[in-house]
Design a protein that fits this description.
InterPro entries: Beta-barrel_TonB_sf, Plug_dom, Plug_dom_sf, TonB-dep_OMP_SusC/RagA, TonB-dep_OMP_SusC/RagA_CS, TonB-dep_rcpt-like. This protein has about 950 residues and is mainly beta. Helix content is about 5%, strand content about 45%.
Length: about 950
């Protein structure tokens, strides 16, 4: 089975000695460490001292993400927080796969984001330099206040605002260059010819006789990748504050080239905040966040891995067809794969997509009756996406016949257009009572919130017309519209979709502390939604948590070893509203067949699904318990937590006649989180830190719709008793070495076999190989993930490094398995194939004519464990005595390397793969997480 590298065991031993992701970089003295405990964190609809909370909230300072080369701030959180999994794709403008404490539903994985109070599905519109802090909420006592949105966790983002004092201007700029760390191992031309001709011989066919024409040796990855892609980030922030008014304005710009040619991403961001103190008890504010992005025309490397390496990209033979792109060999893949370079070069900048987001917000807040505060807040989110594109017509050269043919067989140029508009209006009214009387400290909050969302989209396509006097639509953006004079009106099609969602919520929270050592937190929320059927739209969510600060007790107050110890626990009932449709009670009608009337054919419409009158939200019953602690004059910190999350009444979309929704089934995620850290100072000028985290996660499908029910999602299965997303297939026990070996083994009923084919295990012992012998062959959820950081500072010279790894998960390889009758290129491992008895017991013979060897099996399973040097930064903070003469308050220069090196066991660009709730960890050849080497500067005036 799996072989584990010794280095992973060593890393686990190292992790025991210290690491706390929540620790600030390079603390100066014990006073700073004391303030760490007293830090204020966002808790949803308010703030609180972390010391007074009973749950698990991890705070990441904005400086941790501000100087990293990533457009989406979430990408920079990888490895920094226990219980937080971040899988980055590497494509410009992409959204990471983010999971908090495992997969807890079958309908969605990402947490809810709350940006300055407004709910969001993504934070790609934020400039990382604008972020003040990010709080990751993981436990029920922290999340129940979000009700039906809280099951997957929450990330609260607070952006920077003006501070009281003089005018401050901050300028930051960085530029970096990309390179590939890992890349798939595929055969070269000589190796391909060997394997392909051997495949033909095994099929009883003659060897390919045109390798004299196709005699190139091409690596298509090198042909289409962008060498030395540039990423640059620039921002300016101007803030001013007085006792009465605090104003902040920022502007950001980012431009990034992808790992494939012409994947250009460009984004402009802006933010404005104005906080006004009208009187001692009355405050108001207005804010605005906006972004405008030119989105990349995304490609992937799939065709470059599958295309045969024996054909040159361009025909360079003298003649009429000189300079045309070559077609792949007609017998070797041309019908399935186009010339990868022709796809990229011939379609460059032919899809122009833009994204615009506008988020104004305003609030009014006033105090009354000494202990009461009322805050009224209003938020608008407007997002508009537009795009138009063009499919060009051009010829490719056919070497076998010395002729030309239209690329991809396309005879008419086509044009497409789309627009989508997503508008949400959110308002909340909050009443807070806060008082301290004697040894009692009480904060009570009650709130009312509504969210109205409307979504509309339209798409259209059209073709040119050869009968049009103007001819084909030219490759010029000015003509790429559906109403262009080049368009044939008869080919014009349009589609639209739209929905409205309404939510109303009532909620409350209590934070109580007795003598600053006994804490009790409780939350209650009632959510109502238009998405559910009438009469069943409201549901309750709640939590309660308690904590005990043991070091406040007399028996520990005077000890010199344990400086801080708090034990804590919480239990709650959270909800999930991630669903594929918006109107469970009002299904739309779709085409379900045809009928003939008076000799004419008409579509017949049926309901998309049956109404679900009793459908309700999923409920997640969750609990945790653990402790937080500090030792040795607060230099050493140790935290540990056990969590258990069980989701009941899963929202299931059941395929049947008719289709229908129902609440059925449950899944569980549980595990441990550990964080620890060491922070110290040597002398007056040298400080250092070492911090990190480790998380274990186990998921399990507890029950489904009914006994024996199972659903397949590609290589993954949803079945009672198995982990969520478990891979399912046959266990390979080697290869048949001879016909005698075949006769002495269980007979196969799933395909004909011959020596050199897989020998599948008879799991159920019935003496034959059948589909019933399939079993769990891999788990995409790691046994544990870990991250740690080290750093030091000496007289302004600093260095820090972040490391990240996962252990114990499996990846399903979905490329290079011979999974098609088409002759694609091979993985290099195929050179170790079986060629006779004893030559191999793992790589099967080269034989693509049978589907037997292409069944899902352990042959496709790869060890997903990996270790990565995530980020290394070296820099210098200039002392004020050096820069004050130039009007500077701060100046920082730094050199940064992201994704410096990854050690893994996966044949691909990267060992990490996101996905859906029910299928993830599938290696589809991947997209690189590139190494980015950058230089940056930050100056404050």
């Amino acid at each position: 089975m799996k072989q584990r590298d010794l280095k992973y065991s060593c890393l686990i031993a190292v992790l025991y000695f210290g690491m706390n992701v929540n620790a600030q970089v390079t603390p100066q003295d014990s006073t700073v460490k004391e303030k760490k405990i007293e830090e204020v964190v966002m808790i949803g609809y308010g703030t609180a001292k972390k010391r007074d909370l009973t749950g698990s909230i991890a705070k990441v300072d904005g400086s941790e993400v501000a100087d990293k080369p990533a457009a989406n701030p979430v990408n920079s959180l990888q490895g920094k927080v226990a219980g937080l999994s971040v899988v980055n794709s590497g494509q410009p403008g992409s959204q990471a796969d983010v999971r908090i404490r495992g997969t807890v539903t079958i309908n969605g994985v990402n947490p809810v984001y709350i940006v300055d109070g407004v709910f969001a599905n993504n934070i790609d519109f934020l400039n990382p330099a604008d972020i003040e802090s990010m709080e990751i909420l993981k436990d029920p006592s922290s999340l129940a206040i979000f009700g039906s949105r809280g099951a997957n966790g929450a990330i609260i983002v607070t952006t920077k605002r003006g501070k009281t004092g003089r005018t401050t201007i901050n300028l930051s700029s960085s530029i970096g260059i990309k390179s590939l760390d890992n890349r798939p191992d595929i055969t070269n031309a000589e190796q391909f010819r060997t394997l392909y001709n051997e495949d033909l011989v095994n099929q009883g066919l003659p060897a390919y006789n045109m390798f004299n024409i196709f005699n190139a040796d091409i690596n298509w990855v090198d042909e289409i990748r962008q060498k030395g892609g540039i990423i640059q980030q620039h921002s300016v922030t101007i803030s001013n504050g007085s006792e009465k008014n605090r104003v902040s304005f920022s502007f950001g710009y980012q431009k990034e080239e992808g790992s494939i040619k012409y994947e250009d991403y460009e984004r402009f961001t802006m933010k404005f905040n104005d906080d006004l103190k009208i009187s001692k008890s009355l405050r108001a504010g207005f804010g605005l966040t906006g972004s405008y992005g030119k989105l990349p025309q995304l490609r992937n490397f799939t065709s470059s891995l599958n295309a045969t390496p024996v054909v040159a990209p361009v025909n360079l033979n003298p003649g009429d067809h000189y300079g045309l792109y070559n077609s792949l060999p007609q017998q070797i893949g041309a019908a399935q794969i186009g010339n990868p370079l022709a796809l990229v070069e011939g379609h460059r900048y032919t899809q122009l997509n833009k994204d615009f987001q506008f988020n104004p917000n305003a609030y009014l807040e006033f105090d009354f009756f000494d202990h009461f505060t009322f805050r009224s807040s209003y938020f608008l989110t407007y997002r508009n996406g537009t795009g138009r594109g063009y499919e060009p017509i051009f010829n490719v050269y056919i070497p076998e016949t010395n002729s030309v043919s239209p690329y991809s067989g396309r005879l008419l140029s086509t044009v497409n257009q789309f627009e989508n508009r997503d508008v949400s209006f959110q308002q909340n009214q909050l009443l807070t009572y806060k008082n301290k009387f004697g040894v009692h400290d009480l904060t009570v909050m009650a709130g009312f919130e509504t969210i109205n969302r409307e979504y509309n989209s339209m798409t259209g396509n059209a073709k040119s017309s050869l009968s049009n006097p103007l001819g084909q639509m030219p490759n010029n953006p000015r003509f790429w519209y559906l109403n262009s004079d080049f368009v044939d009106p008869a080919t014009r099609t349009a589609n639209s979709s739209q929905y409205k969602q309404r939510q109303v919520s009532y909620f409350g929270r209590m934070l109580y502390s007795y003598d600053s050592k006994y804490m009790l937190n409780a939350s209650l929320r009632n959510d109502g939604s238009s998405m559910l059927a009438p009469g069943n739209r409201f549901d309750w969510f709640w939590s309660v948590g308690a904590a005990w600060e043991v070091t406040k007790e007399d028996f520990l107050r005077s000890n010199n070893i344990i400086n801080y110890l708090k034990v804590k626990g919480s239990y709650g009932d959270l909800g999930n509203q991630f669903t594929p449709y918006s109107y469970f009670g009002y299904p739309v009608y779709v085409e379900g067949g045809t009928g003939v009337f008076n000799g004419n054919l008409y579509p017949a419409f049926i309901k998309q699904y049956e109404e679900a009158d009793d459908l309700t939200w999923e409920h997640l019953k969750s609990y945790e318990f653990g402790f937080e602690s500090m030792f040795l004059d607060r230099r050493l910190s140790l935290d540990a937590t056990y969590y258990n999350k069980k989701t009941e009444d899963l929202l299931n979309y059941v395929i049947g006649n008719p289709n229908f929704f129902m609440n059925a089934g449950s899944i569980e995620a549980k595990g441990f989180e550990f964080t620890a850290g060491w922070k110290d100072k040597i002398g007056e000028n040298f400080t250092y830190f070492f911090n990190g985290n480790l998380t274990t996660t186990k998921t399990k499908v507890l029950n489904t719709l009914e006994d024996g029910y199972q659903t397949f999602y590609g290589p993954a299965i949803y079945k009672e008793g198995l982990p969520v997303g478990a891979f399912y297939g046959y266990v390979v026990d080697g290869l048949y070495q001879s016909y005698a070996d075949i006769l002495g083994s269980p007979a196969s009923t799933i395909g004909d076999v011959a020596p050199g084919d897989f020998k599948y295990r008879d799991i159920n012992g019935d003496g034959k190989i059948t589909p019933d012998d399939r079993t769990m062959i891999g788990n995409p959820t790691p046994d544990f993930t870990y991250g740690f950081s080290i750093g030091a500072d000496y007289k302004g010279i600093f260095v820090n490094a972040d490391f990240y790894g996962v252990y114990g998960n499996e990846v399903f390889r979905d490329w290079g398995n011979g999974s098609s009758f088409a002759p694609f290129n091979y993985r290099t491992e195929r050179m170790d194939r079986w060629t006779g008895p004893g030559t191999s017991n793992w790589e099967p013979r080269s034989y693509s004519a049978s589907a037997y060897n292409r069944e899902y099996s352990t042959y496709m399973i790869e060890d997903g464990s990996f270790f990565r040097v995530r980020n290394v930064q070296i820099g210098y903070n200039f002392g004020k005595d050096l820069i004050s003469r130039y009007g500077l308050e701060g100046l920082k220069l730094y050199f940064n390397v992201q994704n410096l090196k990854t050690w893994d066991h996966v044949n691909g660009f990267t060992p990490e793969f996101g996905g859906s709730a029910t299928q993830f960890g599938v290696n589809t050849s991947g997209y690189p997480n590139p190494r980015i080497t950058s230089f940056g500067i930050s100056a404050t005036f």
